[in-house]
Amino acid sequence: MSRRKLQLPSWLPIDPYILALIGTVAVAALLPARGAAADVATGASTGAVALLFFLYGARLSTAEAVEGLKHWRLHLTVLACTFVAFPLLGLAAKGLVPFVLTPPLYNGLLFLCLVPSTIQSSIAFTSIARGNVPAAICAGSFSSLAGIVVTPVLAALVLGSSGGGFSADSLLKIVLQLLVPFVAGQLLRRWVGGFLVRHKKVLGYVDRGSILLVVYAAFSEGMVRGVWHQVSFVRLLELLGAEAVLLAVMLALSWYGAKRLGFGRGDRIAIQFAGSKKSLAAGLPMASVLFGAQASLAVLPLMLFHQMQLMVCAVIAKRRSRDPLPEEAVQTGSARTAMT
């Protein structure tokens, strides 16, 4: 008898990187960094955040960004979803405290609503659904670029002192760890861009390894401070429920709102996938800078939302891929007419 290999359904993707993140959290729970080791982990995490944003800056083609501005209505729509609609829904979720969410979990949910959109997964799902891929590339890039400035500003406005104590020192950290490396990457792109393209795969591991280091440092500090005693299994289930509603609302708003604005099918697909998602890669480093000791609870909603959006959007993308394109619909109708 042949053995059948147990596989997950193709429409239910479990991101291997999420498994790595879960493993990192488990290591931090069992072996948290303490004392001198904690200082080393924090310092390495700070350097990793700076490296990440340097690479972001060095990879972003200024010429492509300028070219993408020609489709400004689409990009403004995605930015409005990411930095206006999402934050408003996050503020509305304040009514869930304390019945559904604890204040720390709500702060994490609200921070999730302020994070920029994704690039890679938005492009991938737009491509699967046969949407406007170039628009998705530019929309994700613009969102990530804007998020370097907009996310910290919005966090300071809507989170205030509950976000970990925003002050002149916090703003200085944001500038030094996020903005300065990004600008340096843009300035040096002329000389390092070719190297980054040639070693794209290796540098991808550097990106993800850096984020794992940030997660380990944040969750280690949370374990040492005992913040995880504030979260129960029931609270986690309630958080998942709140995030499911949030994702459903944004998927519907981005799709039907784009239709009301007169966008075609390809553009609507790009708007839906870029406008309903949040970037784990950008959000985790930002949280480590903005929240400090509270970063472990602040990033938990983002980590859960990231996997949820991948699973749901994979189903939607595959369904959209079976939709007839306008040209195909016309040809099908013509063929049926000819047969009668």
Number of strands: 0
Describe the sheet with the most strands.
none
Mean pLDDT: 80
Task: Give the oligomeric state of the chains in this entry, treating copies of one chain as homo and distinct chains as hetero.
Answer: single chain
Distance between the termini: 52 Å
| Helix/strand order | HHHHHHHHHHHHHH
Give the percentage of residues in beta strands. under 5%
Estimated radius of gyration: 21 Å
Show unreliable segments.
Answer: 1-9, 328-340
In terms of structural class, how would the helical and strand content be classed? mainly alpha
Counting DSSP H or I runs of 4 or more residues, the number of helices is 14
Helix content estimate: over 70%
* Gross geometry: globular
Structure notes:
This protein starts with 15 loop residues before the first helix and ends with a helix. The protein is an all-alpha fold. Helix 6 runs antiparallel to helix 11 and helix 7 packs parallel to helix 11. Residues 1-9 and 328-340 have low confidence and may be disordered. 39% of the residues are buried. It has helices at 16-30, 36-59, 62-68, 72-92, 103-112, 120-128, 133-158, 168-198, 200-225, 233-260, 265-275, 280-291, 295-321, 326-339. The protein contains 14 helices and no strands. Helices cover 77% and strands 0% of the residues.
